Amino acid sequence: MTIERRLAHAGFTLTRDYPAAVERVWSAFADEQEKLSWWGAGDAMEPAEWAFDFRVGGRDVAEGKFHDGPVSRYVATYTDIVEHHRIVTTYDMWLDGVHMSTSVASLEFEPIGDGTRFTHVEHGVFFDQFRADDKNREVGTRGLLDALGRYLA
């Protein structure tokens, strides 16, 4: 089987207003036990590997097998962290061991009234047979932000 060597580029911005103080929303990302409570695919996935190193230059790893599907692997490097203001990462995704994409994501935390305006901006490059998955990344990120909202409620 010949793989067509092509790229797709995709970007999106998602904004959510959460009824929780910036410090609380920040902690959901910066504290390992909190992040474990809401991050990922939940019961749809059997976890295999997890690493959490929340610092500039630190790496996070989340790998697991979907019950009815492939093994997903996420490896992120923190490139910028300003407490209670922003987190910037670069991250790579693999599906069944095949490199799927590389992305840069910025997460911004802004106080609004009694809550937080959270903005996720992402730019990704999708490789070869995964070019059509560029639209799924936004859908998956929306799911994560919905899970964060439920966790914070």
Account of the protein in words:
With 153 residues, this protein is α+β, with helices and mostly antiparallel strands. It has a single domain (7-152), classed as START domain (Alpha-D-Glucose-1,6-Bisphosphate, Chain A, domain 4, 2-Layer Sandwich). The protein contains three helices and seven strands; from the N terminus they run βααββββββα. It has helices at residues 22-30, 32-38, 134-152; strands at residues 7-18, 45-51, 59-66, 71-82, 86-95, 98-112, 115-127. It has a seven-stranded antiparallel sheet, covered by helices on one side. Strand 5 and strand 6 form a beta hairpin. The longest helix has 19 residues, at 134-152. The model has no long low-confidence stretch (mean pLDDT 91).
Q: Can you tell me the CATH topology?
A: Alpha-D-Glucose-1,6-Bisphosphate, Chain A, domain 4
Amount of beta strand? over 45%
Tally of DSSP β-strands = 7
Rg of Cα set: 16 Å
Distance between the ends: 48 Å
> Regions with pLDDT < 50 over 5+ consecutive residues?
none
Helix content: 10-25%
Summed up, the domain count is: 1
Q: With helices defined by DSSP (H or I, 4 residues minimum), what is the helix count?
A: 3
CATH class annotation: Alpha Beta
For the sheet with most strands, the description reads: 7 strands, antiparallel
Instruction: Note the overall shape.
Output: globular
Topology of this protein?
Elements: E1 7-18, H1 22-30, H2 32-38, E2 45-51, E3 59-66, E4 71-82, E5 86-95, E6 98-112, E7 115-127, H3 134-152
Helix pairs in contact: 1-2
